Amino acid sequence: MLRNWVKLILLTNVTIVFVIFGWQIPRSINSIVSSHNDEQKIFMNIKATFANSDSVTNTSIREDGTIMVNNQPFFPFGLYHDSSYISDWYGSNTKRLEDLKVISAAGFNTIRPQVGGNYDADVAFLNEAQSNGIYVLSSFNYDKRTKIVDRYKFHPAILGWEIVDDVDHPNNAYSVGGVIDWKAEIKSTDSNRITYVSGAFPTRIEPFFNLADVLGFQSYPIDNDPNVTKPLRSHYYALKSVTEAARRNNQSIIANLQTFAWRNIAPSPKQLRNMTYSALINNVKGIIYYSYFYPGWELSENSALWNELKSLVPEIKQLNSVLLEGSWKRLNSGTENLFAAQWTYNESIYVVALNASPTDIIETSISIPEAVNGSVEALFSNRPQGMIFNQGKLSGSIQPEDVHVYKLSL
Q1: Smallest Cα–Cα separation from 3: which of 116, 96, 174, 140?
Q2: Of 330, 354, 332, which is closest to residue 406 (Cα–Cα)?
Q3: For the whole model, what pTM was predicted?
């Protein structure tokens, strides 16, 4: 990922107006902040505003790795936004706010931006997120981490705090002990929020398990390595390796999936949908795509990719309860490049099957362990379908890179 942490400026002539659950708490600070002590007074005023409020968000991790928000299960589905690269980062940060509105209108529930460039802009951004039901997984200048966490921890839009990005990259040389210390600092400042790290290397990431409440695994296979001729297959097996290791270590995993071009080629709409359902087959606890924006990349300008991503929002919403409360099981297709899983939920079995081959049509019969009454419903009428259920098997053909989703009645 591309990251460039920046400095936090002091507040001047701040007016705070927070809207929480339909009522307002106005607070004006008219004096100019001219010293460290004045800034600390502002922090104390913010804390006094929210410290006794029952609206402060509490996030945690359920035993099965599911993220909980105020004791309710939550499946993050959203986008990264490299906000600190914006030209007015220390000013109004208008682009971050306007992009948030676009992301909100598309129906996503999570954004991972940077905060800490400008206090007024941050408050406007967090208020907008809260009013639109979007949670903010915040990143920040690591040198100012405790100050920024302390400043914004009472805002109910905050989902959690990113401790470090690219934690397993060999060029970064992060130590396990160092990350543990950073987590301790953040947890001592805000014990009500989850912490988050992200990494990208299946063979290097396991030592960093459980250094944060949630680990994001980056999978960006399209146009990354010319020697990889089946990137969707590689994507599946990388996620399988990491999620299986994570389950052995009780580590909650979010998938960070590719919505950008390494050089000239971004994922196609079919590849994007395939990668998304491949992550679900591996039982991830959320998906945050990289990225809506970074310098040189605007996802909204790639209309085919952006439209496909938006079309996935209602599908994930329809599957939300299944993903959060269903009993997941990986299915053995017995076929190369054909991957599948099922969820048992509310007297039904939901099956996802996908073809990771870029060229081959796959004829398959997938055994379903449970007794099914024979009825099969394609969950999304405008998506690939056509498989039938007979004698305990879901059978049919799947075109290259296609995904099938079915509901079978018990």
Answers
A1: 140
A2: 354
A3: 0.89
Average pLDDT, the chain: 89
User: What is the separation of C-alpha 103 from the centre of its chain, rounded to a whole number of angstroms?
Assistant: 13
376: left (phi over 0), alpha (psi -120 to 50) or beta: beta
Give φ, ψ of 149 to 5 degrees: -60, -45
Single-letter residue type at 322: V
Amino acid type, 316: I
Measured CA to CA in angstroms, residue 408 lies from 4, 33, 211, 319, 366 at distances of 48, 63, 39, 14, 13
State mean pLDDT over 51-70.
86
CA atoms within 13 A on the CB side of 394: 36
For residues 28 and 25, give the distance between their C-alpha atoms in angstroms, rounded to a whole number.
10
- C-alpha 327/C-alpha 410 separation (Å) is 14
Is residue 138 within 8 A of residue 162, CB to CB? The reply is yes
Report, as an integer, the average pLDDT of 242-250: 97
pLDDT value of position 6 = 26
Q: How far apart are CA 220 and CA 256, in angstroms?
A: 8
Helices (H) and strands (E) in the chain, counts: 8, 23
Task: Look at the chain and count its residues.
Answer: 410
CA distance 289 to 222: 14
Give the span between the Cα atoms of 325 and 319, in whole angstroms. Answer: 10
* Dist CA 297 CA 329 (whole Å): 37
Determine which helix (DSSP H) or strand (DSSP E) holds 298, and give its type and residue range. strand 297-298
Domain locations in the chain as residue ranges: 56-325, 327-409
- Residue 333 above 70 pLDDT? yes
Which one, of 365, 320, 368, 369, lies nearest residue 345 by Cα? 320
**DSSP code of residue 268:** P
Asked if CATH classification 3.20.20.80 holds for the domain at 56-325, the reply, yes or no, is: yes
CA dist list (Å): 137 to 20, 113, 240: 19, 7, 25
Q: Which candidate, 35, 13, 15, places its Cα nearest to that of 24?
A: 15
Six-digit token pair at 281?
Answer: 């087959």
Distance CA 268, CA 261 (A): 10
Q: Of 3.60.15.10, 1.10.340.30, 2.60.40.1180, 3.40.50.2000, which CATH number belongs to 327-409?
A: 2.60.40.1180
Q: Name the more confident of 150 and 44.
A: 150
Residue 340 tokens read as 């599948």
Interacting residues of 224 by C-beta distance below 8 A, sequence separation 6+: 231, 262
